[in-house]
Amino acid sequence: KALEELSKLEEENHIARIASEEGRDIAKLQAARDREAEAIMKGLQAQSVKDKQLTALNEKLEQDIAGVHTKYSEKKKKEDEEAAQKRLEVLRNVARQEQEAEMALLDWKELQARGNNQKLAQLAKERANTILLFTINGLKEEEAAEKAKATREISDKDLLAQTLSGIEKKYLNERKAAVAANAADLAKIEADLQQKKKELWSNAGSAFGALLKGD
Q1: Helices 117-153, 47-112: crossing angle, 10 deg rounding
Q2: Cα–Cα–Cα angle for 117, 118, 120, rounded to 5 degrees
């Protein structure tokens, strides 16, 4: 009895020294299997019966260990997903704060440039380009997060390659759309500026003509 207690204490001490929780759970299963195997070997049944019992015991151990691996694999996957989501949220918040600061600065510059159409147009273009920069950077972060998630969840190499390719095409199209929208905004800003210049020169010409006529 004392030897059994000593053996049990040594077993518990060994398990306690294992660093990972998964490793400790597996060690417990192996220790339990060893105790059952020892009991079987001490039994009075025929060796053929013992062999069958030991085989069944080993098969059960393999199944139980596979179950432990699955449990901790899913746990790690969930933890990785939560960490990735938190990282993405942090990046989004930082980008949003930076963009708000940039927009506030441009608002102030526009107030200072009131009445100066050329300067206001320049600031409008700067605003459009700043928005494009933040949009592109945001899309890059979203793409990286989506590709990392696919890599974590898809084990089949061919399917993973296909999925990653699809993600890259998706975000490439979104970046192209953002660049095209920016180009359209810049063109409109320039067209509006030229129209204001034309109106200004037209009004100035009319006023000069009226002055010559004595109106």
Answers
A1: 180
A2: 60
